[in-house]
Amino acid sequence: MQLFLAIAAILGGLAVAAGAFASHALQNQLTERAIAVFNTGVRYQMYHALALLIVAMLLGTAKQALPWLTAAGWCFIAGVLLFSGSLYLISLAGIKAVGPVTPMGGVALIAGWACLAIAAVRWA
Fold this sequence. Notes:
The structure is a single chain. By secondary structure, the chain is an all-alpha fold. The protein contains 4 helices and no strands. Helix 3 (about 65-95) runs antiparallel to helix 4. The chain is elongated.
């Protein structure tokens, strides 16, 4: 629970910093398309930092081990690293070779939501 809470806080703070960086420092450095790709990474990072925060809070209130909830948290972390991370590399460094990693990150994010749904059903 504490690890997920800490990682959620870090991911959320970094998303805010990255968004501000894109709005101010990158506007004249990158194409509009590259900015849009970067901002997609920021947006998904923030969404899933919040989702991870909720997972951490739920784990903190659980009276029993919830492996599906824990799996959701790890999927969200992996998904952010792969999805948002690949978009940052594509937009900032122009490394198109990481493009195939982006959908894998998306699958991890979707898996996180599926694990969260399973945890909710099993928790009841």
